[in-house]
Amino acid sequence: MAREIKKATASGKKTVPYLSVVLPVYNEEESIELQYRAVNDSVKKIKKTYEIIFVNDGSSDKSPELLDKIAVKDKNVKVVHFRRNFGQTAAMAAGIDHSKGEVVVFMDSDLQNEAGDIENLLKKIEEGYDVVSGWRKNRQDKLISRKIPSRIANWLISRVTKVPLHDLGCSLKAYRGEVLRQVHLYGEMHRFIPVHASWIGASITEIPVGHHARQFGKSKYGIKRTFKVMLDLITVKFMGSYFTKPIYVFGGTGIVTLILAFLSGLAVILMKLLMKVDMTGNPLFMLTIVLLILAAIFIQLGIIAEIMIRVYHESQSIPPYRVKKTVNIK
Questions:
Q1: 3-class DSSP state for residue 99?
Q2: In angstroms, rounded to a whole number, what is the distance separating the alpha carbons of residues 72 and 234?
Q3: Which of 25, 52, 64, 260 is the most buried (most CB within 10 A)?
Q4: In the predicted model, is pLDDT for residue 76 greater than 60?
Q5: Which region among 158-162, 277-281, 313-317 has the lowest average model confidence (pLDDT)?
Q6: Rounded to the nearest 5 degrees, what angle is found at the Cα of 213, between the Cα atoms of 208 and 214?
Q7: What CA–CA distance (Å, rounded) separates 236 from 242?
Q8: Cα–Cα distance between 63 and 318 in angstroms, integer?
Q9: What are the distances in angstroms from CA 171 to CA 73, 107, 181, 262?
Q10: Helix pair 117-126, 32-46: axis angle to 10 deg
Q11: Percentage of residues of the chain with pLDDT beyond 90
Q12: How far is CA 102 from its chain centroid?
């Protein structure tokens, strides 16, 4: 990367920035200006080249107009406008695609992340780590709907994926660009970027970061998001352990189903012989078989669909978003 920077400078072309800060935006008109000032003040203190990339994820308020005004005044600010709302993962993917920095930092645009922590993340990167994850140790969110479900999800994810992070849901993270650009994001997989990075051998650490209560608007996340995380975790586990050998999971499921079917059938036969219960009219037997078959079908179809959507995107190089326009991006 150093050679590329020197070569670009010698030829008179614009140098590659050291830092890219990516902020997804969805209906944050009250926070935009304050968030920009906080990030801009923070990165200026670092004394290195930078760019700030706002990704407007189809906002329906005044966020697009405010972002354009900021970009007109500050050429270090770049804006990507989506045609509609594609979700946070797509917004982060667009940020990766349009970033040029050696280090890429993600953070929310709702003022809950502490912009001053960017410098601390970069210090860890300079120590040799590839991924530095923020840990909202003193998280300022609702206990029942946000903190408890998050703790449960993070505990489960860290056990299943073997990536020991306390707060995978924290948006404030720093990545080496060369590592991050090897990760492809689809669906709702943004929280699992460190997991994907670990698969390619990235070194990962975490540091405590500041967190503030939301000042404006409403959170886009609710307790139902925990269930989505659980489904995503199943997919991640499959992709990490069985992607190259799917017969293990499909065949295993089939064998388990056959064993359960055998045991259920044996129970029904014994009930017929010993208790004179009619075999064909036993509702417990019928219900058990139907639910087992449906569960196996739904889970397997979900995994197959995940594989197919990845094959579709990877083979055709189609991003999971559509851009309406960009500002300050060449």
A1: coil
A2: 44
A3: 25
A4: yes
A5: 313-317
A6: 125
A7: 10
A8: 26
A9: 27, 5, 17, 48
A10: 40
A11: 42
A12: 20
**Distance (Å, whole) CA 61 – CA 65:** 9
Query: Nearest CA to 60 among 33, 28, 90?
Result: 28
Cα(110)–Cα(31) distance, integer angstroms: 6
154 against 120, higher pLDDT:
120
pTM of model > 0.85: no
Residues paired with 158 in a beta bridge: none
Which tens digits make up the pLDDT trace of 1-48? 443 444 444 444 557 899 999 999 999 999 999 999 999 999 999 989
Are the C-beta atoms of 80 and 98 separated by less than 8 Å?
A: yes
Contact 78, 51 (CB under 8 A): yes
Q: For residue 248, what pLDDT is reported?
A: 60
pLDDT at 5: 41
**Three-state SS letters, 158-219:** HHHHCCCCCCCCCCCEEEEHHHHCCCCCCCCCHHHHHHHHHHCCCCEEEEECCECCCCCCCC
For domain 2-240+320-327, the CATH architecture is Alpha-Beta Complex (3.90)
Interatomic CA distance for residues 265 and 287, integer angstroms: 12
Task: Show the tokens assigned to 32.
Answer: 């935009």
Determine the pLDDT at residue 281: 78
